[in-house]
Design a protein that fits this description.
Length: 198
């Protein structure tokens, strides 16, 4: 047998190893793109106007709600990009809850409680996503407002009607803006949100 020829089994193992390496490289790239999207949504969610002017409580719970709303918008948009977008959405979700886990530990939540807390937050996130999903695309702020009123200001003074309306309008504008962005840009980790109106 010449040196250029490989036994069939060796050639099969080499092909298998190359496929594994390619998958690992693809997952690493996917995580990097998800990280860029997550950084963009967290930066937007930290906009001071949410807390100062719209009255969202500047607490871990309030910040989680605002991050969750932005993540919900991105996940909805990524879903429309087929299998690649859905895989990126899953990577974004995983990254978000890894970050929640780390944040809870930094806040001093004990190791035994962190898993339960993250599971509770994930359940809340899915509940918000399920409630928003059928109404956000309608463009009707009146359908979005009750969901926001029931969840975003929990544990804080009740918001004014204008504050709830402003947040609902903002989410609808963001939904449209993300919808108008190219899929290829999103799949590279580029997302642009709307300005937060006063």
């Amino acid at each position: 047998m010449s040196q250029l020829q490989q036994p069939p089994r060796a050639a099969g193992l080499r092909a298998w190893a190359l496929r594994l390496r390619g998958r690992a490289r693809g997952r690493r790239s996917e995580r990097q793109v998800a990280h860029r999207l997550y950084c963009a949504l967290v930066k937007q969610a930290r906009t001071e106007r949410f807390f100062r002017e719209l009255g969202v409580p500047d607490t871990p719970e309030g910040r989680f709600e605002i991050i969750g709303l932005h993540a919900a918008l991105l996940l909805r948009r990524l879903r429309s990009e087929g299998a690649e977008g859905q895989a990126l959405g899953q990577a974004l979700f995983d990254l978000m809850f890894d970050d929640m886990d780390a944040s809870l530990r930094e806040l001093g939540v004990g190791d035994l409680s962190v898993g339960r807390q993250v599971k509770r937050l994930a359940g809340q996130f899915y509940a918000r996503l399920s409630a928003l999903d059928p109404v956000i695309g309608t463009g009707a702020a009146s359908l979005v407002e009750p969901i926001l009123r029931a969840n975003v200001w929990h544990g804080a003074p009740p918001p004014s009607a204008a504050q709830v309306a402003a947040l609902a309008d903002y989410l609808i504008v963001c939904e449209r803006r993300l919808g108008g962005q190219s899929g290829s840009a999103l799949l590279r980790g580029e997302a642009t949100f709307a300005p937060v109106a006063a």
